[in-house]
C-alpha cells in the first residue's frame, strides 16, 4: 500500500508560524472532545478526594488519558509508585514509535525546538501532523499548534470539574470517548486515495481487533499498526 | 495521604511520560535512514490510523461504530471536517439513545 506519509517528505523540515496557525485551527474540535474527557477525569479525581491543584497538575504533567486512568485504578495507601511507573511505560510505549517517526520528519530541526514540543505530543496531534506533512511538508509548527487545543481542553476540562457543579452525563461521556476516533476517521479518505492495496489496513484492523478483544485495548494501536506495517513492508519496494 | 507524597508521585509519573514522548525521538538519532527500522517507521502511520480507529470503535461500542462510520462517509462526501464530526456525533448520540 502506498500512503503518502510513507514517502520521504519532499520539503525540508521547518517550524513556521503558518504551520502553527494551521494546526491550531485544525485541532479546535479537540477543545470539545478533550475538554469533555478532561472533565470526566476531573470528576473522577474529585470523587477520589484529590485536591484541585493536584488534579490539574496530574493532567498537565502526565497528560495521558490512558496513563492517568490506569494509575487512578491503582490509587491506594501507600501509593504503589513502581507499579504506577511500569504501567505508565507500558501504556505509553507507543510514544517511542511516534517519537522515532517524528525524528524522520523533523530530524533536521534543533532539539531545543523539538524537545519542548514533544511534551505535548498526543496520539491525535501525531496522526494529524503526519497527514499534514503529506500535504504541506513537515512543519513542527503544525505539531505544536495542533497539540495546544488538545492540552488546553484536557487540563481545562479537569479544572472545570472542580470549578463548576457538574456531573458526568451520557452526551459528555460520548463526546469524550468518540470524538478523537471520529476525528482520526475523517483523515482516512485522503490517505485512501493513494492506497495501493487494502491488505495492510485490513491486517491492522484485524490485529487491533484481536488485541483489543483478547489482550488489552491499550495495546491495540501499537500491535495492530505494527502488524499492518509489516505487511506494508512485504509488499512495497520503493522505500 | 500526605500532599507532598502525592505531589512527588505526580512528578515521577510526569517525568516518566515525558521520557516516553521524547525517548523515541532522541534514540532515533542513532538510526540509519536506509535501515529496516527507518523503513518501518515511514510505513507505520496509515496502519496506526486504522488500528487507532478500530480500538476507538471497540471501546465506544455500537454507538461509537455508528458515529465513526457516519463521520467517515460524511467526510468522504463533503470533505468538511466540521460536517463529518457533527454528523458522526449526532449519529452516535442517536444510536446511544435508542439503546445501541
What does it look like?
The complex is a heterodimer of chains A (239) and B (100). With 239 residues, chain A is mostly helical. Chain A is 72% helix and 0% strand. Chain A contains 13 helices and no strands. In chain A, helix 2 (29-48) runs parallel beside helix 4 (65-73) and helix 3 (52-61) packs antiparallel against helix 9. Residues 1-9 of chain A have low confidence and may be disordered. Chain B has 2 domains: 1-30; 35-100, no CATH class. With 100 residues, chain B is an all-alpha fold. The model of chain B has no long low-confidence stretch (mean pLDDT 87). Chains A and B meet through helix 3, helix 5, helix 6, helix 7 and helix 8 of A and helix 1, helix 2 and helix 3 of B.
In brief:
Chain A contains 13 helices and no strands.
Count up the helices of chain A. 13
Low-confidence stretches of chain B: none
Query: What proportion of the residues of chain B form beta strands (DSSP E)?
Result: under 5%
Average pLDDT value of chain B?
87
Count the strands of chain A? 0
H/E element order of chain A: HHHHHHHHHHHHH
CA-based gyration radius of chain B: 20 Å
Distance between the termini of chain B: 41 Å
Number of helices of chain B: 3
Number of domains of chain A: 2
Structural class of chain B: mainly alpha
Choose one word for the global shape of chain B: flat
The percent of residues in helical segments of chain A reads over 70%
| Helical percentage of chain B | over 70%
Oligomeric state as shown: heterodimer
Structural class of chain A: mainly alpha
Number of domains of chain B: 2
User: Which radius of gyration of chain A do the C-alpha atoms yield?
Assistant: 19 Å
> What is the number of strand segments of chain B?
0
Amino acid at each position: 500500500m502506498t500512503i503518502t506519509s510513507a514517502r520521504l517528505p519532499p520539503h525540508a523540515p521547518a517550524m513556521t508560524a503558518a504551520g502553527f496557525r494551521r494546526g491550531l485551527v485544525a485541532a479546535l474540535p479537540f477543545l470539545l472532545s478533550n475538554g469533555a474527557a478532561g472533565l470526566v477525569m476531573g470528576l473522577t479525581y474529585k470523587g477520589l478526594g484529590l485536591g484541585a491543584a493536584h488534579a490539574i497538575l496530574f493532567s498537565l504533567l502526565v497528560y495521558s488519558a490512558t496513563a492517568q486512568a490506569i494509575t487512578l485504578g491503582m490509587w491506594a495507601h501507600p501509593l504503589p509508585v513502581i507499579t504506577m511507573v511500569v504501567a505508565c511505560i507500558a501504556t505509553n510505549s507507543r510514544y517511542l514509535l511516534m517519537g522515532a517517526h517524528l525524528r524522520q520528519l523533523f530530524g533536521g530541526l534543533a532539539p531545543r525546538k523539538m524537545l519542548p514540543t514533544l511534551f505535548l505530543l498526543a496520539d491525535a496531534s501525531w496522526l494529524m501532523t503526519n497527514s499534514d506533512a503529506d500535504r504541506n511538508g513537515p512543519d513542527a509548527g503544525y505539531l505544536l499548534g495542533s497539540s495546544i487545543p488538545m492540552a488546553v481542553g484536557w487540563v481545562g476540562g479537569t479544572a472545570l470539574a472542580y470549578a463548576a457543579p457538574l456531573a458526568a452525563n451520557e452526551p459528555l461521556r460520548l463526546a469524550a470517548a468518540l470524538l478523537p476516533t471520529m476525528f482520526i476517521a475523517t483523515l482516512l479518505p485522503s490517505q485512501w486515495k493513494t492506497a495501493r492495496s487494502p491488505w495492510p489496513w485490513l491486517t491492522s484492523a484485524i490485529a487491533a481487533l484481536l488485541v483489543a478483544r483478547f489482550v488489552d485495548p491499550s495495546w491495540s494501536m501499537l500491535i495492530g499498526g505494527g502488524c499492518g506495517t509489516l505487511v506494508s513492508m512485504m509488499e512495497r519496494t520503493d522505500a | 495521604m500526605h500532599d507532598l507524597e502525592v505531589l512527588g508521585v505526580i512528578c515521577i509519573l510526569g517525568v516518566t511520560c515525558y521520557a516516553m514522548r521524547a525517548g523515541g525521538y532522541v534514540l532515533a538519532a542513532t538510526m540509519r535512514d536506509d535501515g529496516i527500522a527507518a523503513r518501518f517507521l515511514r510505513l507505520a502511520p496509515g496502519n496506526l490510523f486504522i488500528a487507532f480507529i478500530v480500538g476507538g470503535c471497540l471501546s465506544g461500542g455500537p454507538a461509537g461504530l455508528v458515529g465513526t462510520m457516519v463521520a467517515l462517509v460524511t467526510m468522504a462526501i463533503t470533505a468538511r471536517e466540521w460536517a463529518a464530526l457533527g454528523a458522526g456525533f449526532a449519529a452516535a448520540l442517536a444510536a446511544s439513545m435508542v439503546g445501541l
